[in-house]
Amino acid sequence: MTFKNILFTVDSGVARIVLNRPEKLNSLDAETMVELHEAMSRIEADRQLRVLVLGGAGRAFCAGQDLADPAMQEVDGKLPDIGNLVERYFKPLVMRLQSLQVPTVAAVQGLAAGGGASIALACDLVVAAQSAYFLQAFSRIGLTPDTGSTWFLTRSVGTVRALGLAMLAEKLPAATAAEWGLIWQVVEDSKFAGTIDALAAQIAQMPTKALVRTRQLMHAATSHSLEQQLSMEASFIREMGWSADYREGLQAFSQKRPPNFTGE
C-alpha cells in the first residue's frame, strides 16, 4: 500500500506515524483509517521496533472524524450508521494501540478533538506542546462521546471533570490537562520536536517487554482486587526475571555501566 494520508517511517527502532492531512486538521476519513491500520500491521510484524510515536502534520494533531467523509453523508434522506464506523475503524485502532508490543507516545500539537483526542489518550505517554489543547466536541453536533473517551477521561480525571469536558465541549489547554493528570507532559512549543525525539530515543534503548508488561499491569489494576494484582505482578516479574534484558541489567549494574537492552 502507498500511503497518501499518513507518513510512516522507521529509524533506529523508532516507528513514526504522522497524520498528514493538514488542510483538514488531520481529520480521519475511511481512507486514512485504512492506512493507519496498515501501518499498525507493519509495526506489529516488525520485531525490531522498540517504540511508536504518533503525531500530526501542521497545526493540529487530529480533529477527529472527518464530517465530509462520504461515509458520513446522508443518502436518500437516511443518516449514516456512525456506530458502524466506530466499530469498524476507531475501536480496533484503540485496541491495537493499547495492546501493541512496543510502548507508544502521542506527540500532540495544536488541536486534539473528538476521536482524535481519544487516539492520543490511547497511547502510553501523551506529550503536548504548550499551545495544544484537547476538545470533546461531540455535544456540539448532537453526539455522544466515542473512541473510548469516556473510559480514558473517567480513569484519568474522574467522573466530575469528565462530565464537564464532555457535556460543555470546552477547550482543555495542555497545561491544565497535565495538571489534571490527563497527559504526561507539556513542553514549550520551541522545544517540542526535540523533546519528542529525545523521548523516543530514550524509550528505544529501554527494556521493551518490561515496559509493555508494565502497561498491562497498570491497566489491570483498576479492575483487580489487591490479591489479583499481586498475583499478576508476581507472574510478570517471574517472566521478566528470566529475560535477556534482566540478565543484561544485572551485569550492567555490577559492572557500573549503562545497560544495552535489546528488548528481549
Automatic annotation (TrEMBL):
Recorded coiled-coil stretches: none
Enzyme Commission numbers on file: 5.3.3.18
Cited PROSITE patterns: ENOYL_COA_HYDRATASE
InterPro entries, alphabetized: ClpP/crotonase-like_dom_sf, Enoyl-CoA_hyd/isom_CS, Enoyl-CoA_hydra/iso, Enoyl-CoA_hydra_C
Domain of life (superkingdom): Bacteria
Keyword entries, A-Z: Isomerase
GO MF, one example: isomerase activity
PANTHER family named among the record's database cross-references: EG:BACN32G11.4 PROTEIN, ENOYL-COA HYDRATASE
Protein family membership: Belongs to the enoyl-CoA hydratase/isomerase family.
Protein name per UniProt: 2-(1,2-epoxy-1,2-dihydrophenyl)acetyl-CoA isomerase
